[in-house]
Specification:
Largest sheet: 7 strands, mixed
Shape: globular
Number of strands: 14
CATH topology of one domain: Cytochrome p450
Bound molecules: protoporphyrin IX containing FE
Distance between the termini: 61 Å
Length: 447
């Protein structure tokens, strides 16, 4: 097998010029799953650019824990930063601590409890138009639900309503555009293609609305108990307030990082419960006992144990953040292999979660593998990443998904309305399309 650098194996099948881009774009999940057979560090080529895929949990942990050496950076992160304004998810290590400290209080347990009240209200609107025996496009519903809920968490003032509408309308083109900007060469991204025009227009509109909302909040002395109010009040270690550009970047980052991943997780969870009706029934037994027919709230969470495990197992099978990158800031040593500075490293929660050495029977949906007595390989479950750059919204997402899934299950029985498995569009997240579900109304449900 070819080695490009001592200890790094080259993945077979690279074509001239495009490298591995074709399998990576056409069937990325299958391609990723083949890589660990070639070694622990496997080099792939994305057009002219090389990247090393890290295929063992303990090595991924080293990358995640040493965030000064394995930094955010390189062309892909730079393009994401350009799109969003260099907020928390794309800023380099040198800016990260300050940014994280300014956002962290908005994700405290006390704040989450407040947000959970918004979540419960939004769950009530999620199924309002469902009717007995009708088919529901789950991906579309979950997108609307996640975007409404997260946007309301970020800005609740009535003056922000136009921004919420515009952002919701623009985000699908922004999500597609960011992925395209990240993987295609800049020369292609500069062409006046319809997709580029749509992306630029959507980004411009969302950008302008968020800016307008920030200035409206600044003019208003009231605090609204939302993330934007908190960011306006925050002072950094030197006692300085955050500037508009920084606040803007954080809001755009939270919208983009939070909405699609949470919507996608809920869509996959619904799909899996259709595939495993026995788990769906067990879950209904739990929710019937805890909720009856009402909507779940924060206080119910400790008793919604199977719902939480079902979401956890969904995130293992279909981690929304499926491929992530780092760049070595200095020379690094990983598995005794010297990695030169400015090497792009890839870690893939999907690859690690589907490797049978680390997650036995990896393709099987089994929420019971998350019972407390079960043993796990350390670092083999990483849907939220790890280390200093671990997802800031992990508890928010788990809370939202657990409350929503259990509230749906307790009132509706659902089954697949389509024989075909969902079509997966690999964007920044693993996005499923065509999750059509037939919803049967149970006693007490509206409709
Ligand atoms: C199921 C839902 C979610 C999944 C699977 C997910 C996944 C991830 C992953 C894997 C990372 C680490 C990226 C890396 O290592 O490069 C991350 C970071 C991040 N996520 Fe999430 N996320 C979810 C929901 C959310 C929500 C709801 C928010 C906010 C509202 C959010 C905001 C962020 C931010 C700001 C970062 C960057 C953190 C930093 O670098 O300090 N995410 N997320």
């Amino acid at each position: 097998m070819a080695t490009d650098h001592e200890g790094i194996t080259q993945a077979p099948g690279a074509l001239p010029i495009v490298g591995h881009l074709i399998p990576l774009l056409r069937d990325p999940l299958r391609f990723l799953k083949t890589l660990s057979a070639h070694g622990d560090l496997v080099q792939i080529r994305l057009g002219p650019q090389k990247a090393v895929v890290v295929c063992r949990p303990e090595l991924v942990q080293q990358v995640l824990l040493h965030d000064r050496i394995y930094d955010k950076g390189g062309p892909i992160i730079e393009r994401i930063g350009n799109a969003l304004g260099n907020g928390l998810a794309s800023c380099p290590h040198s800016a990260h601590r300050r940014q994280r400290r300014s956002l962290q209080p908005a994700f405290s347990r006390a704040c989450l409890r407040e947000y959970a009240a918004i979540m419960t209200e939004q769950i009530d609107t999620l199924t309002i138009n469902w009717s007995d025996g009708r088919t529901v496009d789950v991906a579309e519903k979950m997108y609307t639900f996640a975007s409404d809920t997260i946007a309301r968490t970020l800005f609740t003032a009535p003056s922000a309503a136009p921004a919420i509408d515009t952002v919701k309308e623009c985000l699908p083109d922004i999500f597609r555009g960011i992925y395209q900007q990240a993987v295609l060469p800049p020369s292609v991204n500069r062409l006046p293609l319809p997709s580029n025009v749509r992306y630029k227009r959507a980004r411009g509109r969302a950008w302008a609305e968020v800016s307008k909302t920030i200035s409206l909040y600044r003019q208003d002395d009231e605090t609204h108990g939302d993330v934007l109010s908190m960011l306006l009040k925050t002072r950094d270690d030197e006692g300085e307030a955050l500037g508009d550009a920084e606040i803007h970047a954080q809001i755009m980052t939270l919208l983009v990082a939070g909405i699609e991943s949470t919507a996608v997780a809920l869509t996959w969870a619904m799909h899996l419960l259709c595939q495993y009706p026995d788990v769906q029934e067990r879950l209904r037994t739990e929710t019937a006992e805890v909720l009856g027919t009402r909507t779940a709230t924060w206080d119910d969470l400790p008793r919604l144990d199977l719902a939480r495990r079902a979401i956890t197992e969904t995130l293992r099978l279909y981690p929304p953040g499926w491929i992530l990158t780092r760049t070595t800031a200095t020379e690094a040593r990983l598995a005794d292999v010297v990695i030169p500075p400015e090497t792009t490293l890839i870690y893939s929660p999907y690859l690690i979660h589907h490797d049978a050495r680390f997650n036995p029977r990896p393709d099987f949906f089994d929420p019971d593998r998350w019972l407390p007595e079960q043993q796990h390989v350390r670092g083999a479950f990483i849907p939220f990443g790890g280390g200093a750059r671990k997802c800031i919204g992990d508890n928010y997402a788990m809370t939202l998904a657990t409350l929503a899934l259990s509230s749906i299950v307790t009132r509706w029985r659902f089954s697949s309305a389509d024989e075909q498995p969902p079509h997966i569009e690999p964007r920044m997240t693993l996005t499923p399309h065509g999750v059509q579900v037939r919803a049967e109304c149970l006693q007490g449900a509206p409709g």
